[in-house]
Amino acid sequence: MKSSEDGDAGTLSIGALAARFGLATHVLRHWEAMGLLHPGRDAGGRRRYGADDLTRVATILILKEAGLGLNTIRSLSATVNRATRHEILRPAAQELRSRIAAAQASLELIEGGLNCEYEDVTQCPNYGRLIAERASPRSPAGDPVTEAVAPTS
């Protein structure tokens, strides 16, 4: 039997599981080495993946898409304690909030450029405000000083 074919008793080979999720087989081996997957073995010692493994792979992919690293995912899979789960996820949530805020600021800048009626985008009031904020001295707390330099025309 080729390693990419489905096996007996509703299990999948490493090739079949990898293909199902669009992964390379070495990814599944790496996840196994990290303790994220625990496939069974057939009589010949080949990995066999069942329904629980399908669920684990889908879970890992969803958590990776959410921005979590494999070490964080491993920590999450090792706990059933709600408080521990919160300790693990809280920094990830804050990091994601920061990335969302940065992306939102970038989108506002781009939309400002799209909506600017001036030929030269540097003449747009919103652009000038952003440049003035960036160029102004900052207080130790990281807030712009109130006497921000006004853009010159």
UniProtKB/TrEMBL annotation:
Pfam families: MerR_1. This is MerR family transcriptional regulator. Residues 11-79 form the HTH merR-type domain. GO terms for molecular function: DNA binding; DNA-binding transcription factor activity. InterPro entries: DNA-bd_dom_put_sf (IPR009061), MerR-type_HTH_dom (IPR000551), MerR_fam (IPR047057). Keywords: DNA-binding, Repressor, Transcription, Transcription regulation. Transmembrane segments: none annotated.
